[in-house]
# Entry
Amino acid sequence: MQHMALCALVIGCCSGFVSVGHAQEQNSGTGPKTQLQPADPAPEGSLFNLPAPTLGGRQFWGDVTFRHGWRIQQNVFTEHFRLLDPRDVRQAWGSRAACEAELNKQQFPTMTGDAVVVIHGIIRSSKSFAGLQKQVQGQGMHVIPFDYPSTRVPLKQSAALLDQVLKSLDGVERIHLVVHSMGGLVVRTYLQEHEPDPRLNRMVMLGVPNQGAEMANIMKDNLLYKFVYGPAGQQLVADPAGVIAKLPTPKFEFAVIAGARGTPDGWNPLIPGDDDGTVSVDAARLPGAADFMTVPALHSFLMDDATVQNATIHFLKQGSLREDGTTHPIPVKDEEPTP
# Structure
């Protein structure tokens, strides 16, 4: 029984259990790799394009620009760019300048007000936030579904993509973040490697392994785990001298929501203490959080839980996860006295 659980968790670690929904998020396709000569005059660096839905390949592309549902993405292998419209139809590809020239033809109005950037975990995509996105949009806030090649690049490279997307949000007055699993570590890496955007206001962390993921420690040497999760998967380990231990705590308001079974041993017998099947409650806690709560939900489905959605929106708007305004902050541990 334990052997079967271990095999299942090879795929489940740090992103949750693979499901049909996950497969739909990660449909195959790597994008074009050969350069074609344009049939008509076009901006320098542009390639002949027949608008058509993409084949997916979400683990090979990272967002660099977002504007009213349109996005420019870069391929992690070929380094060329593509422009996708809100229906994921490719409208241009080639150089970044060519994609920006095509995007500028749309003449969008400048965005104003609040924007919420949703950041998925490893092996997932922004589509995993579909339900929560609708709830946020119902509150009159822009939703920025950030996609990055989570299994192909280390955390620093994903953080660099996030930096570019945030800088592209012209006109937005305040930026909130809702992050799931490794998405929270991408944000903390961004804060470490880049000058934080002054518009960052509040963040809700869902099942983020802020102290490292115990399952990553168990699986890090497994060949299947290495193949599926790539370089970032190796950075998820719980290690006092590891990558996660050195990441900064956000200086803006943030809350932590952890999945839990409500029992001493949780859902997963391989993880010490209560857990969501992938990340322990203790690993999700991050001192300095303005609010904290647990919900009886598994890791992969935290963003689909109604309680989580309501708590997330309430924190973004009011600064507390609970409607009655009470908070349960995670205090920062007192520094050790100097001997």
